[in-house]
Design brief:
Blueprint lengths: L18 H22 L4 H5 L1 H22 L8 H22 L7
Helix pairs in contact: 1-3, 1-4, 3-4
Length: 109
């Protein structure tokens, strides 16, 4: 995620994967671990039951803030809607995967 805040001149050049695939993968991993962490906590049952949706929301807000910072405060960086969509897509894919893996383990009251 540090790469999101570096000026473009400081980023490694010649990445083997397209930029959007990297965005998708990073936010998939972030949402995956956040979802399972929220699902394992016991203090807030409502958050526990809705863990993938809460994780998606957190990732959406986090990605939005980073894109806005890039577009306003980081020299030679810009806000990109496609980056934002790749971030959201990576986080969104976790939702059905979570329900396929966990099924009815959680009480959905």
């Amino acid at each position: 995620m540090l790469g999101s805040l570096l000026p473009s001149s400081r980023l490694p050049q010649g990445a083997s994967l397209p930029d959007k695939v990297i965005h998708f993968a990073i936010y998939f991993v972030l949402a995956f671990f956040l979802t399972f962490g929220l699902a394992k906590q016991t203090r807030w049952p409502r958050i526990r039951r809705n863990a993938p949706y809460v994780a998606f929301g957190v990732c959406l807000v986090y990605g939005s803030i980073l894109e806005i910072i890039q577009g306003t405060l980081i020299p030679s960086r810009a806000f990109e809607w496609l980056d934002f969509l790749a971030n959201a897509g990576g986080a969104a894919v976790v939702i059905p995967i979570f329900w396929m893996i966990c099924g009815n383990v959680f009480d959905k009251k």
